[in-house]
Amino acid sequence: MLNILQTAFGGWQQSSVSVSLKDALGRVLSEDIIAQENVPAFRRSTVDGYALIAQNTIGCSESLPAFLSLIGETEMGKGTDLALNDYETVYVPTGGIVPEGANGVVMIEYTEPMGDEIAVNSPVSNLQNIVGIGDDVKENEIILSKNTVLKSQHIGALAALGVSEVKVLTKIKVGILSTGDELVAVDTPLKLGQIRDVNTHSLAAMIKSFGCEVVYQNRVGDLFDDIQKALKKAISLSDVVLISGGSSVGTHDMTPDIINSLGKPGVLVHGIAIKPGKPTIVAKVDHTAVFGLPGHPASCIVSYKTVVEPFIQKTLMNSKNKTKRVLAKSGFQAHVSAGRDVFYMVTLEESENGYIANPVHGKSGMISVLSKADGYIEIPMEKEGLQKEDQVFVTFI
Amino acid sequence: MLNILQTAFGGWQQSSVSVSLKDALGRVLSEDIIAQENVPAFRRSTVDGYALIAQNTIGCSESLPAFLSLIGETEMGKGTDLALNDYETVYVPTGGIVPEGANGVVMIEYTEPMGDEIAVNSPVSNLQNIVGIGDDVKENEIILSKNTVLKSQHIGALAALGVSEVKVLTKIKVGILSTGDELVAVDTPLKLGQIRDVNTHSLAAMIKSFGCEVVYQNRVGDLFDDIQKALKKAISLSDVVLISGGSSVGTHDMTPDIINSLGKPGVLVHGIAIKPGKPTIVAKVDHTAVFGLPGHPASCIVSYKTVVEPFIQKTLMNSKNKTKRVLAKSGFQAHVSAGRDVFYMVTLEESENGYIANPVHGKSGMISVLSKADGYIEIPMEKEGLQKEDQVFVTFI
């Protein structure tokens, strides 16, 4: 299914924008970050101690120390003109410059001051306790590659390299449309037969936490013209439109016709072999991807997570975001009919041997199921079911 | 160690604030959410079909259908006055009201219209395809409990219950202070001996993604008075202050004295048995928690993740956030000296049998290590090391 989308949206070019480092968390790099300098830029000591010439300490011990004359110290954050000759030493703090001529640093714990001299009790090997120029990052090295999703540690790495602004992909614009005569706003008292519009809210939350932007949000009844008008508007504003409800096989199933009325190529796939979430529609209207998602809240979440997010990630952003999923042992058995992938909402229980996935009972549309689940497992259509203790991957929701 | 903090900060009361549903993602509930209504509020059909009296279909089949007279239909989002008598039926769409008198719904696929009658080809059991009043959520049931971290599906559940505003904990206020004569701002060209202030940026990113607020951010040199002044200001503004650098055993180690000069009880722990990150300081000054973190970037991240985040989560927010960690098999062996917990930065590789954790090589302060790691593993001090294939938990960073 993703192949169809990959073909339809192949060559998608997301525009990019410069952001400052403090706003870069979670954004997707649109350029390789190439180090403009060596890190460290000078030879650093990794300990508090004395810089020295390693050969001068050969064979020394507590009973027979090597005596070196102290010719000065280097200070944090400052350069130094000091240079060592044989049997000379310089005090260096952790992170300080190792002066010219030195090729090792002895930890202060293995030394004793003796007037103008320092007694060294332990031999030092060549380059011991020194980080060389460029040992961490070399100038011109690619430190972060294009399409990396920036995490906290990347922000730190960029700071270290003096990068205070980065080019990132603009956020994917998403429109959300809920359809159904029975839907009312969250703060409206319910009349008989009405239910509240849940999907607009859970979809918006998932879209935001996935790093996309909600640019359109609306709820309309089951009239062809109303849906068409709203969908047209949503498509004109968005890279991706999610329309939920209206895609079951009831009398109200107008969504495919409406999508096809708005532009080419229109509906690409109608009905994906997954449960819950079967009525998922995948379409392209001009440059916008349109997904018809099931109306039931949990089905809607599963369809979004398994179809929409991978599409946005792989096809539109081409990002290297690892899915947050964990291996677990199934704590239950399930018999499913072959022919479609089945998704189960589960909770995760941590045991000494890793996670156990337990089922959250209830029908797919249930709010109680939604609010208890940590994630879901997928039973691929090739498998006839699930045995207790089977290994499963749980994707967090 | 967390016990000491638990005692020192026992009874911490974080204030709360009302936020609208669209701003509630990632926030921590400060109240139980009790359902004010039944969900569903009416008997709903889970299929497109015909509501009927189950007993009227006993023994029916394709060759011997049950004939029921169609007395009307229910519409989505509307109430109905219809009520069934024996051998009557009403058309009901998915999600529509099941009328009085009916105790089952037959899927439309198992029926055939015959003039004013509907031929039913398959027997229906009692309550089949019906969700009863309160089957999903019962009025007065606790649907989400206090201290839940709100995820997308919870936002959906709150929407379903008509909750458009929730009370959540105010964000924990965090101050960040970097110390060191060698530190300069990210956008400053480096002079010899200088390095850039990395920790302010990586800490700020981690704090924000953990749902806290950065209220103070500063960088000062290694002068007692400067650090004292900045720390005093940070403490006055923050619930938690993170001071990095200045906590190694060098000549510049003034942090504990400065903390103790600012209020009671002062330093609680100096030096935690973890590597990297040993110089971690834990203190309380008046009502503020102060953590002295190591200056090296990766050590700083590990100390923050293993000491600060659990404290904020368990002691200040008391939140039920499951740590994002996964079970993996070690792809390497490591010999470590007993006596302290050792943390290794690793990358995760997904295999058929789950994740494999591979080491990221390099010293703890290295930027290159930071930018490549997916997370870290902990080798507890009781263990002498790690064997290949050992099971390990990887915590995401």
The DSSP helix count of chain A reads 7
Structural class of chain A: alpha/beta
End-to-end span of chain A in angstroms?
Answer: 21 Å
Q: What does the radius of gyration of chain A come to? A: 31 Å
Helix content of chain A: 10-25%
Largest interface: A-B, 101 and 101 residues
Q: Averaging pLDDT over every residue of chain A, what do you get?
A: 88
Describe the fold and architecture.
The structure is a homodimer of 397-residue chains. Chain A has 397 residues and is of the alpha/beta class. Helix content of chain A is 19%, strand content 32%. Chain A has seven helices and 28 strands. Chain A has helices at residues 2-8, 152-160, 199-209, 224-237, 255-261, 297-317, 367-372; strands at residues 16-20, 33-34, 44-45, 49-52, 66-73, 88-92, 104-107, 111-114, 117-120, 130-131, 142-144, 165-169, 173-179, 183-184, 195-196, 213-220, 240-244, 265-270, 274-275, 281-285, 288-293, 325-330, 334-335, 341-351, 354-359, 375-379, 385-386, 391-396. In chain A, a hairpin with a 2-residue loop joins β8 and β9 (117-120). In chain A, α4 (224-237) crosses α5 (255-261). Chain A starts with a helix and ends with a strand. Chains A and B meet through α2, β14, β15, α3 and α6 of A and α2, β14, β15, α3 and α6 of B.
Topology at a glance:
Two copies of one chain form a homodimer.
Chain A: H1 2-8, E1 16-20, E2 33-34, E3 44-45, E4 49-52, E5 66-73, E6 88-92, E7 104-107, E8 111-114, E9 117-120, E10 130-131, E11 142-144, H2 152-160, E12 165-169, E13 173-179, E14 183-184, E15 195-196, H3 199-209, E16 213-220, H4 224-237, E17 240-244, H5 255-261, E18 265-270, E19 274-275, E20 281-285, E21 288-293, H6 297-317, E22 325-330, E23 334-335, E24 341-351, E25 354-359, H7 367-372, E26 375-379, E27 385-386, E28 391-396
Parallel strand pairs in A: 5-6, 13-16, 13-17, 14-15, 17-21, 19-24, 22-25
Antiparallel strand pairs in A: 1-12, 2-11, 3-10, 4-6, 4-7, 5-9, 8-9, 18-20, 20-21, 22-28, 23-27, 24-25, 24-26, 26-28
Helix pairs in contact in A: 4-5
